[in-house]
């Protein structure tokens, strides 16, 4: 969907990063069906460099800089710092709200194979991935089994990556990029990794 103002439309790079990020921690909200959608990004203090990088990517669509917030965990009485920012509510986000949240809960869109690029994969991995011994683990715990199987299929078809499904609980699943695909996987995503997140590949 096009925005009336070209400066408020998503660039090709922004679209790639948005798709990958939405498979991870990025979120899109819409107050009402008649309203435009907006992007919401939050990271813990430890990843403030990465969040500031994401802000630089979407800065032209935002009206305010990232802000700190503090929350108290009553279980351990510790205060946690997070850094967050919102975009403006814009037509350019409406399509992504519709395909990722058709019923109000985030899913994997049926056309994710057409949307996910190597750059998008890198941002998904920076958000929700970690090296696990000789493999790379993607935390897809909020997605259904069918959604996770679709992602595994896309990783195979789009990037020729050998992946497996890991059941954490009866309704929670993770994806493992297998050791035999790690050389190819690193070659795909490392050019797009922010320096502060490269530790996840090491």
UniProtKB/TrEMBL annotation:
Cross-referenced InterPro entries: Chloro/Mito_RNA_Process (IPR052500), Homing_endonucl (IPR027434), LAGLIDADG_dom (IPR004860)
Gene3D superfamilies per UniProt: Homing endonucleases (3.10.28.10)
GO MF entry, a single one: endonuclease activity
Record carries keyword Mitochondrion: yes
Domain Homing endonuclease LAGLIDADG: 15-185
Keyword Nucleus assigned: no
Keywords: Endonuclease, Hydrolase, Mitochondrion, Nuclease
Biological processes, Gene Ontology terms: Group II intron splicing; mRNA cis splicing, via spliceosome
Superkingdom: Eukaryota
One protein family per Pfam: LAGLIDADG_2
Name recorded for this polypeptide: LAGLIDADG homing endonuclease
UniProt source species: Rhizophagus clarus
């Amino acid at each position: 969907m096009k925005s009336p103002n070209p400066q408020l439309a998503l660039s090709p790079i922004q679209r790639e990063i948005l798709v990958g990020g939405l498979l991870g921690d990025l979120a899109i909200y819409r107050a009402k069906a008649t309203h435009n959608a907006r992007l919401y990004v939050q990271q813990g203090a430890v990843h403030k460099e990465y969040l500031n990088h994401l802000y630089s990517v979407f800065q032209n669509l935002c009206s305010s800089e990232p802000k700190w917030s503090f929350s108290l965990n009553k279980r351990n009485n510790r205060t946690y710092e997070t850094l967050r920012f919102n975009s403006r509510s814009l037509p350019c986000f409406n399509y992504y709200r519709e395909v990722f949240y058709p019923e109000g809960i985030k899913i994997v869109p049926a056309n994710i194979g057409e949307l996910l690029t190597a750059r998008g994969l890198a941002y998904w991995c920076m958000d929700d991935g970690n090296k696990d011994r000789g493999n790379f683990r993607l935390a897809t715990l909020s997605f259904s089994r069918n959604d996770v199987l679709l992602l595994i299929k896309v990783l195979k078809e789009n990037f020729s990556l050998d992946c497996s499904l890991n059941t954490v609980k009866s309704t929670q699943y993770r994806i493992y990029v297998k050791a035999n695909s790690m050389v190819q996987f690193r070659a795909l995503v490392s050019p797009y990794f922010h320096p502060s997140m490269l530790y996840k590949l090491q």
